[in-house]
Amino acid sequence: MAGFLGATYDWVKAAHVIFVIFWMAGLFMLPRYLVYHQEGLSDPADAARWTEREGKLRRIILTPAMIAVWVLGIALALNAGIADGTPGLGWLHAKLAIVFLLSGYHGWAVGYAKKLAKGRTTVSNKALRMMNEIPALAATLIVILVIVKPF
Fold first, then answer.
1. Which pLDDT score, from 0 to 100, does residue 1 have?
2. So what's the pLDDT on residue 109?
3. Rounded Cα gap, residues 144 and 132, in angstroms
4. pTM score of the predicted model
5. How many CB atoms lie within 10 A of CB 64?
6. Angle at alpha carbon of residue 61, lines to 139 and 68, rounded to 5°
7. Which H or E run includes 112?
8. Which residues does 92 contact at the CB level (< 8 Å), separation at least 6?
9. Other CB atoms closer than 10 Å to residue 122's CB: what's the count?
10. Which are the contacts of 35, defined by CB distance < 8 A and separation ≥ 6?
């Protein structure tokens, strides 16, 4: 597939996949950090360490990777013809919807980390552990959509 990316298409696609891996790694880690942080709120020193870890994860991996995923992904989607009404891209629309929801989850997790840094909890430990599975579910659906292209 050449499109406007031409000879750079494979490089852009490779970079997109690399940054997806980084982002997903961070999204698998942060919710687990939130569980441990919430459980450690009774010890101020422990809670402070979790706040620091979460901040580093956010600044070094999560947010830069998510930005790269979106920039590269939009370039790939435009290259595929999503803005031109190219037929057969239903799978891509579904993928983008899931990525949009996953970005919202990312934002929620970052916001919850900031609440925990202030000592506030609004989600039970059990619910927090269940929410830990959202990135895995999203990744599974996205891979199926991209590889199988069911519609």
1. 61
2. 97
3. 20
4. 0.93
5. 15
6. 70
7. helix 90-117
8. 77, 80, 82, 145
9. 9
10. 125, 128, 129, 132
For residue 6, what are its two tokens?
Answer: 């031409």
DSSP for 11-56, please give it. HHHHHHHHHHHHHHHHHHHHHHHHHHHHHTTTSHHHHHHHHHHHHH
Where residue 124 falls (left for φ over 0; alpha for ψ -120 to 50; beta otherwise) is: beta
Amino acid identity of residue 80, one-letter, is A
Tokens of 136: 């895995």
The C-alpha atoms of residue 37 and residue 54 are separated, in whole angstroms, by: 9
* pLDDT score, position 87: 94
Domain layout of the chain by residue ranges:
3-148
| Average pLDDT of adjacent 10-residue blocks, the chain of 151 residues | 89 98 97 96 96 98 98 97 94 98 98 97 95 97 97 93
What value, to the nearest 5°, has the Cα angle with vertex 121 and ends 118 and 126? 145
